[in-house]
Amino acid sequence: MFWQLYEFGAEHALSNVLTADLLFKAKVVSLILSKDTEKALELLSQRYRVAKPKLKVGMPKRYSKKLACYVAKKQTIHISGRGALHNPHVILHEFYHHLRNFTDAQKGIEKYAEKFSENYLEAYRIIAASYDSTMKIEKK
Q1: Please, what's the largest Cα pairwise distance for the chain?
Q2: So where are the chain's domains?
Q3: How many CA atoms lie within 13 A of 115 on its CB side?
Q4: Of 80, 91, 74, which Cα lies nearest the Cα of 34?
Q5: Which residue has the higher pLDDT, 140 or 78?
Q6: DSSP string, 83-130
Q7: Average of per-residue pLDDT values in the chain
Q8: Over the stretch 84-121, which tens digit does the pLDDT of each residue have?
Q9: 11 phi and psi, to 5 degrees?
């Protein structure tokens, strides 16, 4: 993992070096879950210094059986239905393809898109667990 968790008795403190990165990733996931996907894409685009992708509900004909896809020529993330708009795994996976469109000619490999998405979701889980742990300590 790219993070370190130090234990001090019952309390947990995240390493200062990577706390900002974890918090950013957790915020992006939280925005998507709270139905503010456009804001999440805006933050991601600013962070990686790329144009914000368009987001469209409805799939291109040749991708109609997929949950989502990224069309590089239109710089658009297509989502099959409104439910997927708030699925962080799907949004982050497709954003990775958008990001790779700007950074190299390979356009991204699926396993790397999966890792990118999972990295953000893991940060969200870490921050959520840390928050839950802090709340339990404060209630005592």
Answers
A1: 57
A2: 5-139
A3: 7
A4: 91
A5: 78
A6: GGGG-HHHHHHHHHHHHHHHH-TT---HHHHHHHHHHHHHHHHHHHHH
A7: 83
A8: 999 999 999 999 999 998 887 565 688 899 999 999 99
A9: -90, 155
